[in-house]
């Protein structure tokens, strides 16, 4: 299967997808005119073109009405991205037919001069976990693969190519190769999430830990994440991490 990584906008959710064919013509057309629906169609077309059987997309493949399904999905998501044959990265704010190679504050002023995808919390794991990824601009023109863009991706994210190339480095038994807890945290330091809790939840897979979702707990989610990391890691650099710095 292929999997999509993207910045959320006017999306179509699970409930709307399963009810689409039962809607009246007017309601169905309103859904189909959304940018999120076109994203589904274009992703499916690319999946079929590349010869994959399935596409997974977070907006319409998770029934968020079920708290148990949402919790399972979040705890499994890193593995789902890692096990995909291809990750399509959709950059909705890139107009050009080439990947940007230097900061453009006039175009990406709200996201430190780079496409907004690089400023979001969830997309960190979506960059690291998949073995293969292809980037597309807003018109669904391919503008490079993870391999092609290795030096630029390193510059933007400060993540070493050894990690981007093989996420198993995160679980290496060789401590000289495995990045420290604080180094991983630093990759996420400037990224933003819509919900406060997602700053912690989006890092579960990178640290190889699991915990239940408790939306409403606010910053306590990050404290729980730290406790879970301590349970499985002897890396004391976690005590040097200041989430406000």
TrEMBL record:
Residues 1-102 form the Heterokaryon incompatibility domain. It holds the Pfam family HET. This is Heterokaryon incompatibility domain-containing protein. The lineage of its organism: Eukaryota, Fungi, Dikarya, Basidiomycota, Agaricomycotina.
């Amino acid at each position: 299967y292929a999997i999509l990584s993207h910045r959320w906008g006017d999306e179509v959710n699970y409930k709307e997808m399963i009810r689409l064919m039962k809607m009246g013509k007017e309601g169905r057309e309103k859904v189909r005119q959304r940018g999120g629906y076109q994203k589904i169609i274009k992703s499916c077309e690319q999946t079929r073109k590349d010869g994959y059987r399935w596409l997974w997309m977070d907006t319409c493949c998770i029934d968020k009405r079920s708290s148990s399904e949402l919790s399972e999905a979040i705890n499994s998501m890193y593995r789902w991205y890692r096990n995909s044959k291809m990750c399509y990265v959709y950059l909705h704010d890139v107009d050009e037919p080439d990947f940007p190679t230097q900061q453009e504050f006039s175009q990406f002023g709200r996201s430190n001069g780079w496409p907004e995808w690089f400023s979001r919390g969830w997309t960190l794991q979506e960059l690291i976990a998949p073995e293969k990824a292809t980037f597309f601009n807003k018109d669904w023109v391919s503008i490079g693969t993870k391999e092609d863009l290795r030096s630029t991706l390193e510059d933007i994210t400060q993540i070493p190519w050894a990690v981007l190339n093989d996420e198993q480095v995160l679980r290496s038994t060789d401590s000289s190769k495995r990045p420290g807890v604080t180094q991983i945290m630093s990759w996420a330091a400037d990224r933003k999430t819509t919900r406060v809790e997602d700053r912690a939840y989006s890092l579960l897979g990178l640290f190889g830990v699991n915990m239940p979702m408790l939306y409403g707990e606010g910053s306590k989610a990050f404290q729980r994440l730290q406790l879970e990391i301590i349970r499985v890691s002897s890396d004391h650099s976690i005590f040097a991490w200041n989430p406000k710095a």
